[in-house]
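Input record, target 12 of the design panel.
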């Protein structure tokens, strides 16, 4: 990615605290360090493989019917990560954008929203991947749904991002959420089209993003506007 968002200066308006967002970050972090990193527990080598999503279990329809008992993986894959950087980047994006989406929906609806986005992202990946035997793990699809919802809710909010510049250290700059997220989704879609053979699940990101952008229209609380005119500080 050409940048990393770190802060959005967008205060909560309807909930006191983003309990679901914080819990998701805590759960993902705990799963990785307790069960995947070997720093605390030495779990069997097949632990991640057993909870990851395998596209060949989902599509075509015949495979889906044959592997119904394994469809729990459409949920469990969201809480696994390949390494610390994979976890860190997903959790930073969730930290920056998740609280305000949770604020717009309420805690219970946000849990449902996040889960649906993750499942939809997994299904899109399974439909379009060229590597049906490569396991899919990571919260990226669900977090992409959060990013899509944020774009429709707060496109004008200013977001601080870290931008690496040639021959200079990483520089913090501030842009509108519409610009930051627009560049992000363009990067995801372009990578999905041009780099289909990589290990990154680009189509899961695109699928999650589109799902989140659609669902926020239906799942936001009554009275919560789309395309909020506020610009932040």
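The sequence produced for target 12 reads:
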């Amino acid at each position: 990615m050409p940048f990393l968002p770190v802060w959005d200066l967008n205060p909560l308006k309807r909930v006191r605290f983003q309990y679901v967002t914080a819990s998701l970050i805590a759960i993902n972090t705990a799963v990785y360090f307790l069960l995947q990193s070997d720093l605390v527990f030495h779990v069997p080598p097949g632990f991640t493989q057993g909870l990851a999503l395998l596209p060949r279990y989902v599509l075509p329809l015949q495979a889906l019917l044959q592997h119904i008992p394994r469809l729990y993986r459409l949920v469990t894959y969201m809480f696994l990560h390949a390494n610390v950087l994979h976890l860190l980047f997903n959790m930073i994006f969730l930290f920056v954008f998740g609280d305000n989406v949770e604020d717009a929906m309420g805690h219970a609806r946000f849990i449902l929203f996040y889960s649906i986005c993750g499942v939809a992202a997994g299904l899109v990946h399974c439909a379009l991947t060229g590597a049906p035997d490569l396991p899919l793990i990571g919260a990226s699809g669900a977090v992409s749904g959060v990013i899509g919802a944020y774009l429709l809710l707060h496109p004008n909010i200013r977001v601080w991002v870290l931008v690496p510049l040639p021959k200079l250290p990483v520089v913090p700059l501030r842009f509108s959420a519409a610009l930051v997220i627009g560049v992000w989704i363009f990067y995801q879609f372009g990578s999905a089209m041009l780099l289909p053979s990589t290990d990154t699940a680009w189509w899961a990101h695109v699928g999650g993003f589109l799902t989140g952008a659609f669902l926020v229209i239906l799942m936001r609380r009554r009275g919560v506007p789309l395309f909020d005119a506020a610009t932040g500080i």
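The CA atoms of residues 68 and 214 lie 27 Å apart.
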